[in-house]
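Protocol step 4 of 6.
Sequence for 3',5'-cyclic AMP phosphodiesterase CpdA (Kitasatospora viridis) entered exactly as in the expression construct, tag removed. Do not edit the line below.
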Amino acid sequence: MSGNLLAISDLHIGHPENRSIVESLRPDDPSDWLIIAGDVCERFEDIAWVLAVLRDRFAELIWAPGNHELWTHPNDPVQLRGVERYQKLVELCRRLGVHSPEDPYPVWQGEDEQLVVAPLFTLYDYSFMAPGATTVEESLQIAHDSGIVCSDEFLLHPDPYPTRGDWCRARIELTERRLGEIDPSLRTVLINHYPLVREPTRILRYPQFAQWCGTELTADWHLKYRAAAMVYGHLHIPRVTWYDGVRFEEVSVGYPREWKPRGHRTWLRPIKGPAAR
Ligand SMILES: [Fe+2]
Ligand SMILES: [Fe+2]
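Step 5 output, structure tokens:
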């Protein structure tokens, strides 16, 4: 009997109501696995609390970083930047027994299929350019002129890479190598804070924000790496869409001002298993 592969993202527990949501999360079955697709919160200590609590409750816990975990926030005693901060988060995962993008991908055993569950960290390179822009510089300028600028520009440092785009390209290269090593007879569940294709960003209220939401470099990964499903967050627009026959699940909780008007819903999204049928 196999359990469920469940997913959630954008817990943002800096908001007390969202902390209560985390406290309420329980598996349906003791064998359920949980995926967290980034944006747990900003403070290292709070991230550690969430991962420890949920690691205790679920059979396996899989985490991919969001931009908020990677911020060097002035209120966080952990002031590491960029790659060093990411590495400290990976060490935390290893200590707690949480699967991060830096360790072998676990294989989930369903009733009739094995799936490689792959948390990814690919960041963005501004290639989801603002309408009217032909270069990354123009795209950023359009955003600054309109006043719609992601806080990452001030808080997510790419050190030691010169830019976030450089960090993204290095991550893409490394991640493609890892995904290419997966047994080609197995399908995958790809998990990334950002959607692997641009289409989900088309409904953003501010299209100039899309440049902080992924990269064109992953546009064919759902096909190339045999995704049975792609799990993402970041947009705070929970929904299911299909691209090339592949199910994309945006599983975010989001901020209280976003989820409260939507009314009560089940927070854990079934990706595979009995609850997903
Ligand atoms: Fe978020
Ligand atoms: Fe995010």
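Step 6, annotate. Residues 39, 66-68, 193, 234 surround fe (ii) ion (ligand 2) (CB under 6 Å).
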